[in-house]
From TrEMBL:
Involved in chemotaxis. Part of a chemotaxis signal transduction system that modulates chemotaxis in response to various stimuli. Catalyzes the demethylation of specific methylglutamate residues introduced into the chemoreceptors (methyl-accepting chemotaxis proteins or MCP) by CheR. Also mediates the irreversible deamidation of specific glutamine residues to glutamic acid. It is found in: Cytoplasm. Phosphorylated by CheA. Phosphorylation of the N-terminal regulatory domain activates the methylesterase activity. The gene is cheB_2. Residues 134-157 are annotated as: Disordered. It catalyses: [protein]-L-glutamate 5-O-methyl ester + H2O = L-glutamyl-[protein] + methanol + H(+); L-glutaminyl-[protein] + H2O = L-glutamyl-[protein] + NH4(+). It comes from Mucisphaera calidilacus. The lineage of its organism: Bacteria, Pseudomonadati, Planctomycetota, Phycisphaerae, Phycisphaerales. This is Protein-glutamate methylesterase/protein-glutamine glutaminase. Pfam families: CheB_methylest (PF01339), Response_reg (PF00072).
Amino acid sequence: MIKAVVVDDSAFMRRAISTMLNEDPRIEVVATGKNGLQAVELAKSLKPDVMTLDIEMPEMDGLTALRVIMRECPTRVLMCSSLTTEGSVESLRALRIGAVDVIAKDHSTFSTKMGDMRDDLLERIKAIAASRGRFTTTQTTPRNADAQNDTTTTNPPAAVRSAIEPVRNVSIVCIGSSTGGPPVLEYILERLPENFPLPIVVAQHMPKVFTESMANRLDNVCRMNVVHGGDGEVIRPGTITIMHGSSHHIITGRPNNPRIQTVEAPDEAYKPSVNLLLESATRVFGANALGIVLTGIGRDGANGAKTLKEAGGTILAQDEATSVVYGMPKAVVEDQTALAAMPPVQLAQALIETQTTRAAA
């Protein structure tokens, strides 16, 4: 039985979320709270398997409560955020503090889409409660530091350098990510040098307002240029393109002039689809595409990874120990499409070494 605590300053939302969770026989809501102070006390006294935590609350807000909880009684926390720009910025901050995931509350459509939110909420709660991995950043890249001053980038430990043979002849990097992904993406991408020449395209399962805030955040902390790309966006060398959330996209065009195209894909549950990203990258770049599958629920990316591998491309996966939810990377590992599974620091180094190989070729 999964013990859950629901904290929200709205009595209506507390009842609604509790009702949704209690509909699943494997979940029991053992307590509710209406502010951050109560969230901290409930986390300490009940030690729940998972807590849903609102951000905007009186007395103590959700972010402050989250910091205390992570410091004094680490708990798996699912943040509940409004579907606004401000809410998305705060949600990304919560993920950096230690929240496992974020779910958006769209008050304008809540009554008509309650069933969709219930299904999404139940899936996330069960996956979060079952997960064992945890990603924490004990070291960070100094912002705006020169690449030569970053020892993680230029002088990695020998064990990291030799984890796999360098991946050769890469023309594009495609990264798929879901639950727990934003902090991992930031950790990897901010370690790449300003002159990293390859285009990088990211599909992160999030609403569009969240992916836009994530792109803005990454553009501030990364040495590479970062853009939020939707239909018609040109995929440029040396630029990280974060695909718009809330819709599906593919890569089209030719290797020397690729673009993003928005498409309909009713069979793909998660938006934007990692399967579609990898499959379309294979059509355009063939064996010269490198795919990376990060932490996330389900198997999105598994079919696309198989397509890419069959074309001669390479797939890397995040390892279980650092994955908040070992679903997506587990799928490509178990399908034997991943060349290797490794922690984020090694994934970053693998990207850097694609250029070491290119320079030596």
